[in-house]
Amino acid sequence: MSGHDSKYFSTTKKGEIPELKEELNSQYKDKRKDAVKKVIAAMTVGKDVSSLFTDVVNCMQTENLELKKLVYLYLINYAKSQPDLAILAVNTFVKDSQDPNPLIRALAVRTMGCIRVDKITEYLCDPLQRCLKDDDPYVRKTAAICVAKLFDINAELVEDRGFLDSLKDLISDNNPMVVANAVAALAEIQENSSRPIFEITGHTLSKLLTALNECTEWGQVFILDALSKYKAADAREAENIVERVTPRLQHANCAVVLSAVKMILQQMELITSTDVVRNLCKKMAPPLVTLLSAEPEIQYVALRNINLIVQRRPTILAHEIKVFFCKYNDPIYVKMEKLEIMIKLASDRNIDQVLLEFKEYATEVDVDFVRKAVRAIGRCAIKLERAAERCISVLLELIKIKVNYVVQEAIIVIKDIFRRYPNTYESIIATLCESLDTLDEPEAKASMIWIIGEYAERIDNADELLESFLESFPEEPAQVQLQLLTATVKLFLKKPTEGPQQMIQVVLNNATVETDNPDLRDRAYIYWRLLSTDPEAAKDVVLAEKPVITDDSNQLDPSLLDELLANIATLSSVYHKPPEAFVTRVKTTAQRIEEDDYPNGSEQGYSDATSQVADGAASPPTSSSSSPYTATRQSAPPAAAPAPAPQVPDLLGDLMGLDNSGAIVPADQPAAPSSPPLPVLLPASTGQGLQISAQLTRQDGQIFYSLLFENNSQIPLDGFMIQFNKNTFGLAAAGPLQVPQLQPGTSAMSLLPMVLFQNISAGPPSSLMQIAVKNNQQPVWYFNDKMAVNVLFTEDGRMERGSFLETWRSLPDSNEILKEFPGIVVSNPEATLDRLAASNMFFIAKRKHVNQDVFYFSAKIPQGVPILIELTTVIGNPGVKCAIKTPNPDMAPLFFEAVETLLKA
Amino acid sequence: MAGAVSALFILDIKGRVLVWRDYRGDVSAIQAERFFTKLIEKEGDPQSQDPVVYDNGVTYLFIQHSNIYLMTASRQNCNAASLLSFLHRVVDVFKHYFEELEEESLRDNFVVVYELLDEMMDFGYPQYTEARILSEFIKTDAYRMEVTQRPPMAVTNAVSWRSEGINYKKNEVFLDVVESVNILVNSNGQIIRSDVVGALKMRTYLSGMPECKLGLNDRLLLEAQGRTTKGKAIDLDDIKFHQCVRLARFENDRTISFIPPDGAFDLMTYRLSTQVKPLIWVEAQIERHSRSRVEIMVKARSQFKERSTATNVEIELPVSADASNPNVRTSMGSASYAPESDAIIWKIRSFPGGKEYMLRAEFTLPSVTAEEATPERKAPIRVKFEIPYFTVSGIQVRYLKIIEKSGYQALPWVRYITTAGEYELRLI
């Protein structure tokens, strides 16, 4: 059944518009219809037919559904440019929205919602209200989406006219399609609103789970996506939800499967039973594998997601690595992603097979893919110690093929392998040196030079090799120049003979006088100065042992990973970037005042990220550990130290004459901390003129009691002593109090080192500290202090994400204690996190729950008691909910005080 | 993560907009067109470009079909899996309408295209993509009636894939069990990956609203029913069902029950990842007699029972791109040189089980080789075949019960066939 609409695209005569105008006003129905088709055809090819507005709208009142649809289509396109004329259509719209035919009712509402003209929008409200309660589900489902349209144009109107409530009512509709669209609309409205509008309660949850069984595949995706934000109350509820969702894994539509996986993974975080978790992992593996039989575009999305999933739950696909082996006909973007997952799943058990595959790929034709395969071999070597040797032998075999780019890539990864396993595989250096001439890419060259410099003492002709590069020094790219400089210095330090000595002169000269690259010049001057002042010190610096690298490339930050896992199947999970990084809203209408008021503190970190995405988009990130930049930095740690070097070459003579005073800037004296005044504990009125202010502080991992004595009495005071009563943490002075004689009207500060666990008091924990101070002139003064427990938080309180989760789960719920701090506002989370971290309360992860942000922290007090803290708040709004989980919950009140103090600060 | 697309575009092979539907007014056609044209110009081969591209605040998702692109543009965090599946489904719907989906057929039917886009997606949310039901109320010119239509009940029903009131004189169901064998053999002759992907393809010609129940020799089902499973039952790794199958019911007691759509559809697909013995094994030996003369000897062996026969066997043997003057002899079937794919294609119409056939090919290579020869694309040997009346998995349809309230008798017809899927041997 093929049409012949193409004829409408061609007009032969001149004066097209007047001709169309005439036809549109024809008395014959068929002619009018043909004319409208021609108008639409013209619109499709981009001709401006807006001048025909009135004539087209005149055709709107028709019984012919096809014609009506075409006129509506025209209206959607041109109403904006002719807002005044668009009013002409309103009457027909309103009439159509009451038509006996549900198709026409729905069409009218759907189209009206698409016309983004304020004047029309006002007239939309009444028909919309009716259609939301229409008898026909087809009309209701269309109306549900229309509410979202209206919200996009005029949010206030939606709230004022109570459409949100009508929409919420539709969640209980008996038709699954209506429910699904209502969910989609509500989710979108929620996303654009700062107020909680659509909160999923236990009741809606069960409604939606039921609708899930009956609605279309697309509807299932809406519902699953909305439900994945639901936070189950406990493990049991989570298990129940998962049980209702798992059948979706059998759905033929990949999107349904992925959304179900997302939801299951979210709920799994709450499930404590390892059996259940293991079982779920087992259930998810086959559907994930089957996604790889879908169309390549969908495979690509699936692979990007699997990449995330295996980072969190490596066991799911641990035995399935073979399904990620590349097929000959896979599109290149699929192959690249498969490779990434193969590296992640590579283990001692399967490495032989994986290497065989990589080797196969390394001989394919697509250069990018080949390079990535070679790099993959290197990354496996770094990741799997026991397989490193086999990886190297594969790399050597590849080098022997003598394909230029393979050799270069192999040398780059071998350099990283050397950095991972120093002094282990130098025997292959000779083979590498054979390929020296073929290197023409900066990164490969720099890597090779680094290897020569690092192992100069074991390469007999190291000086010759380096010399061969020196001739072209000025033309080399900066990366290579830096490496050459460092390598020559290394060579000189290792073999201080005549040849290297001459070389170093040449290099230093080239790298200082002849260059205008400040990085290179700075580094050269530092070496120069080091070598000329103290060659031994130079050795210590330049030949110092380097830290061993690890393969952390392409591992995502845990909190980012959390966020991405919550966004499985969406663009965010494809880009591996949080939604804020690429979601852009173009305001097509100006009514969103509310949004502007909403302080979006949490998004600040990404404010400039959009441009970043633009460059890389979904291209796989390059591995960080092997990037040339880090390589250079690591091989020459001193260069990284910011040392101001003289910019004028004239100073050179002085420099050589060891007069480097001009180049040395005195270290900044840390400005005296302008800390807030200490709280007064013993007022002068009580202490016969002696006033004592004091507070516990923590400096460099040590606890101090910072005291201020003010003598307001008429006599000098001396012989100060201090005593602490038994207290919960056994805090006591570590030594005598050092306070000089105080003349009347003077004061003295003292920093008293403290120790813990000296005189521990029995009884319930308390932050109370009783202190006695005496001097030779006055009676003993007793006063109380409240210790800020946060000074006890130790520097090693940061927990690994994994162990945090484990600890959190291992502690019974009865250990979790809640407290509200109604008055506290977190408006700038970053600053707050920094402040907390400074007090050794370490940020672990963050997630979003509805509109609230939930932050997780860990802290530790001496004797290894961990404290897990969860803060829930709406950024910028008063009220912070704090939950603390710790092995000794009776300490919790103390911690609440501490957290409150820190948040208030 | 609510996310909807801003607009849907159909572009021609050069990236120019043919038809587009604007849902939100925040991405312009000019903007999208300019970007996409640039993209396909730059890439040369758009096949190598990821289907998800970001430009200037807008994410474009696209697929290609014959000489057109289908693309969505969005500014939100959309469900990428859903949208790409949707685009593929749009292709299916258009194909149902126009038989061929290409630039020409789109131009010829742009009115219907607009109508369909309006119905399939609303405000950027996928809505309804059942081609058969859509064609009940959106018709092309030839079938258009003057009476105004109503939306079929099915559009919003729980059974959204079937309309009521279908009537056939003869009620029949055809069920094809098609298994395709995917295999990957590495250069050591090791099987590194093998799996079987099966599909139950149904064509139903049934009246009314028939309630169907399908019984397979699924081990879990049989065990659940307490039956003995003497060697006949099979384990299916991952089963995917057409949306008509009640998933919750399957999860519960593994019964496959459904009200089928009318006409052809895939009832279910499944996967078996157990090691399969390659049904047709191919070995190749290359002898280089001199710099310029190469001889290949190939043995193909059928490794299935003698009572089965593979038909339409096609073995693709890659040869060097600069090979010339091939001289091929075979002990069975015919072989021809296909320079366009740098391969010798060996066709054997009928290949019974337990047989072995030979091919010998000789060709010449240029005696001069480039000094810096880039490595040649190492294509694997690829094999195509069909084996009727045979399944690798041993899956059996035990029954297909059809119950309709009018009580008619329906005839189910079942066929089995095994084909080669991605059947690759990296042996040359």
Can you describe this structure?
- The complex is a heterodimer of chains A (905) and B (428).
- By secondary structure, chain A is an alpha+beta fold.
- Among the domains of chain A are: 5-262, Leucine-rich Repeat Variant, CATH 1.25.10.10; 680-787, Sandwich (Immunoglobulin-like); 793-904, TATA-Binding Protein.
- Chain A has a five-stranded antiparallel sheet with strand order 1-2-3-6-5, with no helix packed on it. In chain A, strands 9-13-12-11-10 form a five-stranded antiparallel sheet, with helices on both faces. Chain A has a three-stranded antiparallel sheet with strand order 4-7-8, with no helix packed on it.
- In chain A, helix 7 packs antiparallel against helix 8.
- Chain B is an alpha+beta fold and 428 residues long.
- In chain B, 17% of the residues lie in helices and 41% in strands.
- Chain B folds into three domains: 7-155, Beta-Lactamase; 172-274 and 399-413 and 420-425, Sandwich (Immunoglobulin-like); 280-367 and 377-388, Mu homology domain, subdomain B (Immunoglobulin-like, Sandwich), CATH 2.60.40.1170.
- The model of chain B has no long low-confidence stretch (mean pLDDT 87).
- Chains A and B meet through helix 2, helix 4, helix 6, helix 8 and helix 11 of A and strand 2, strand 3, strand 4, helix 2 and helix 3 of B.
- Chain B: Belongs to the adaptor complexes medium subunit family.
- Chain B: InterPro entries: Adaptor_comp_med_subunit (IPR050431), AP2_Mu_C_sf (IPR036168), AP_mu_sigma_su (IPR022775), Clathrin_mu (IPR001392), Clathrin_mu_CS (IPR018240), Longin-like_dom_sf (IPR011012), MHD (IPR028565).
- Chain B: Adaptor protein complex 1 (AP-1) is a heterotetramer composed of two large adaptins (gamma-type subunit and beta-type subunit), a medium adaptin (mu-type subunit) and a small adaptin (sigma-type subunit).
